[in-house]
Amino acid sequence: MVKSQKLHVQAKGGKVICLGTVYGNIDICASDKSTVTVDKLQGSAVNISTEDGLLKAKYLYTESSFLSSAAGDITLGSVHGNITLENKMGNITVDSSSGYLKASTHQGALDVYVSQLGKVELKSHKGSILVKVPSSLQAHLQLSGKEIDMNSEVHVQEMAEAQKDDGVIITGLMNQANKHEKWIKADAPKGTVSFRIQSWFQSLKLQD
Fold it and tell me: What residues does the DUF4097 domain cover (predicted)?
């Protein structure tokens, strides 16, 4: 366990591994093929960036986090708080998100399980997006992409579908959600947005 007001780590070519819990404001910058693997981070502000290396964190409990990678995958377990993820070439996976999540990738794919909702914004400029939610989640949905794939278990009220540019946009409400408070926006202009119902228990079974 590491406790600090501010923890600053820079790595070039090696591995950054944080075992146990790290508390405090955390700034980790890994260049070249350096990877960052973290068990549990708890703090008010967390910034982690990689270039070509994997960025992996099991638990993030933060007021605000900014995680970015140029070409490495970003793989997160359970994240809480205000999280922003940016990736150019790699994929982004989030096993469980509760709070505000903004994730974007230019060429990669997004795979996100939303367990409790604040606001979720997902964008893949050239790839596809998979969004999984529990059946009880209250959410205002706005899904847009070249194709939208929504299975029959998803019950959406006030559903509307419209053509937009070369794709389709679907809006609606899950479980009588308030339009202004909790929403999921997913945009994949060149790919498919898939929307699935999945229990929390199922999401655990699919993890390593």
Answer: 28-163
110 to each of 16, 96, 132, 191, how far by Cα in Å? Answer: 24, 13, 11, 11
Task: Give the per-residue pLDDT at 6.
Answer: 79
Supply the Cα-derived Rg of the chain in whole angstroms: 17
User: Which pLDDT score, from 0 to 100, does residue 208 have?
Assistant: 46
Please count the other Cβ atoms lying within 10 Å of the Cβ belonging to residue 206: 10
- pLDDT of 179 reads 66
Dist CA 143 CA 156 (whole Å) = 12
| CA separation for the pair 100, 79 (Å, rounded) | 10
Residue 48, judged by CB atoms within 10 A of its CB (0-12, 13-18, 19+), counts as buried
Under DSSP, the state recorded for 166 is T
pLDDT of residue 200: 65
Residue-level pLDDT at 86: 97
Parallel/antiparallel/unpaired status of strands 129-133 and 167-174: unpaired
**How far are the Cα atoms of 63, 126, 177 from residue 108, in angstroms, in the given order?**
26, 7, 30
Residue type, 118: G
- Where the chain has pLDDT below 50, the residues are 208
> Residue 4: what pLDDT?
63
**Cβ neighbours of residue 113 closer than 8 Å, sequence gap 6 or more:** 94, 95, 96, 97, 132, 133, 198, 203
| 6 vs 50: CA distance, rounded Å | 19
